[in-house]
């Protein structure tokens, strides 16, 4: 092989390598999204039983209940279609408000309650975690569309 | 046009150009920062969530932005220096490094002061943006350490350029880490789709500060480049003639 | 086409000092270029610059009238370099060292055992280089040069650590190489006794 | 002989010869391979002594400790990657060889990984057991270390090439490489922690694999450029 051809091959290999690396990174993002479960799916019982997962949505107005003298608290999260109760014990981020976007990490407990071990609040009211935004947008669109028969309408809302 | 580039590549011209540019950068920098400081502190209304604490963004955002800008600046001038064998480009990179490090440090300090009321902690290890900014500071330290441990300037220039280019990967990770890992740090407010999510009376001081800091960076850079060029060219005839001339190199 | 090494207007600056300025030469097949000068005059630097390891301030080294920088690999395939430090591994034996070198660059079809016999190192074949004397190591480095197929020899102080017999051997070998149409750039303190066209460059 | 343009040597032959030579050298000086391994084992032993031997603590801190120890031990072995070649002049010979320098740099890095990264991956289960990791977590640990040490060797080769021939090389090398290596550490240690917590960890594996492939295709060029510069 002539050095010139070698160089072409080398550049080709490097470009191919970077492309493969990009594909692997995209795959990693995909896997990260699997981590995230929509509230509607949780209510319908479609969530991983064995492990922790993340949910996200807006904190429902007037849904925050705190226990006097402890850090225990309860609130509801909505994805604009279904609502889910969340229990949490710990220090909340200052930006945690009603009507704000929130991401909770934890697992389902007894009685349709999500037991969170970590709460992440997002600062900007316009900003949401991409998966939350996607989930909300989808359900808002569905609401706007004429109701379809037999749709997975939420019964707990 | 070509003549301009040729002149740009000659140290005496570059030295004089930097001197000419200095006031044109320094004066707007002062004006903009003065306006931004006043308006940011007194004219902007407190944030509906964060109260007055949000005002630290007027320092935090520009320095965070400049910490990355300076790095890109360093890497690009390194690449130019390597590809076109332009020694002046390396001098620019060398001049930019300590400035970048200073802005990175400022961004970290203001960010941590801000984090205290917002997140309830001075330092949040879980946040990739914070961590990556710290890594960026270490990258600057590495760059400066490498430069200072190679005696031969030409060699140090090239080695540092390679290091800066390798480090760009890291800066990219810093930039996209907010999206890559779900984090505490907010996403972009200014550049997002559908215009900035910020009120005008808060926004204009911020824009003024960003612009002002950029001008400040330019002015400081011009100043440092002059020193750097003078040091590198210390054995040449033009420097000797300039120093010995009645104006003494002004 | 015969091989040709030339340089025009070379300037090299190392750190603060200018080692040479406006240096030009041309070397044809069968010729020797002798670099003369005191210690620290830049002989080794010029040699390294010719090999493409140092970047020049100005000027270009040409191989067959094409700048070396445009055909680095082709040029490196045509040269073999004997430096002050032999570049051989002390932990490896003579055979292991030369086998590695053989995989790196094109080899001539001479019989290695003939070469070893001529250099007087046949009996050292399975010894690690560390246990050889400096002169013997030098001879191994010479063996590497003789085994390669390269027309251009770059030899920096080839007589270091060699006895009188060794020095004469180096000159004879160089003579033969040049007679066969090879060329050689040599940096040396002492004068050489070579029956070929010798171009001298004083630094 | 007078006619130039001799036959160009085969790249693969050069690659194999380079790896073979470095492995042979490592075989003749086993200390260079074993010392970083002992260092790895010792750092891993230090932590339970310092933090206390409680089982829960060990399970929580295990992945992080093993990963930090692996990073430090890789760093320790990186210093010698090009040093001896620089000292005895073989680096000059490599630079004037007709083989493409990035391929030679890649071969040297590969040999370095085979003598430092791979042994580390192989003894990691032993240490992981002392940190009470379960068998399937050990599998994840080994997989992340396998990918991670590849990344570290490749990144490290750039730093080693930049600092070759400098007097304060070792400390400087750490300063240059550690910031670049942090994303690898973050991904690796977090992936093992997630796996230990029974959570999905595939993200980290894919991201590490992506990082490794990217490093594999770009780092040899940077290393080659750095070698040329430091050897001027």
Please explain how this structure is put together.
The complex is a heterotetramer of chains A (157), B (250), C (203) and D (232). Chain A has 157 residues and is α+β, with helices and mostly antiparallel strands. Chain A has helices at residues 3-34, 39-43, 130-144; strands spanning 53-59, 65-66, 72-78, 83-89, 101-108, 113-121. By secondary structure, chain B is mainly alpha-helical. Chain B has one domain (27-244). The model of chain B is unreliable at 182-195 (pLDDT under 50). Chain C contains 6 helices and 9 strands. In chain C, the strands form 2 sheets. A 5-stranded parallel sheet of chain C has the order 6-7-8-3-9, with helices on both faces. A 4-stranded antiparallel sheet of chain C has the order 2-1-4-5, covered by helices on one side. In chain C, helix 3 packs parallel to helix 5 and helix 4 packs antiparallel against helix 5 (134-147). Chain C is globular, with a radius of gyration of 17 Å. The chains are: A alpha+beta (157), B mainly alpha (250), C alpha/beta (203), D mainly alpha (232). The interface between B and D is medium-sized, with 26 and 22 residues.
Please indicate the count of domains of chain D. Answer: 1
Strand content of chain D: under 5%
Q: How many strands appear in the DSSP assignment of chain B?
A: 0
Counted by DSSP, the helix tally of chain D is 9
| Uncertain residue ranges of chain B | 182-195
Report the sheet-strand fraction of chain B. Answer: under 5%
Q: What share of the residues of chain D lie within helices?
A: over 70%
Biggest pleated-sheet summary of chain D: none
User: What percent of residues of chain B adopt helix (DSSP H or I)?
Assistant: over 70%
Provide the structure class of chain D.
Answer: mainly alpha
Report the end-to-end length of chain B measured between terminal Cα atoms: 27 Å
Average pLDDT, all residues of chain B: 81
The value of Rg of chain D in angstroms is 19 Å
Could you tell me the number of beta strands of chain D?
0
> Any idea what the shape of chain B is?
globular
- The best one-word shape of chain D is elongated
Mean pLDDT of chain D: 88
N-to-C order of helices and strands of chain B: HHHHHHHH
- The helix count of chain B comes to 8
What is the total domain count of chain B? 1
